[in-house]
Amino acid sequence: MEDFGIDVLMYYNDVLLCYGISTEELKKSYIGKFEKNMKRW
Prior knowledge:
Blueprint: H1 2-18, H2 23-39
């Protein structure tokens, strides 16, 4: 099962690279989504 998790992360990384999404863009998007969701509670 551990190999599956690693495969998913590698695939996710490849997708980000293909679409030219930087780690900074991903970080901003993730934090924004997190903050929006936290306001719902």
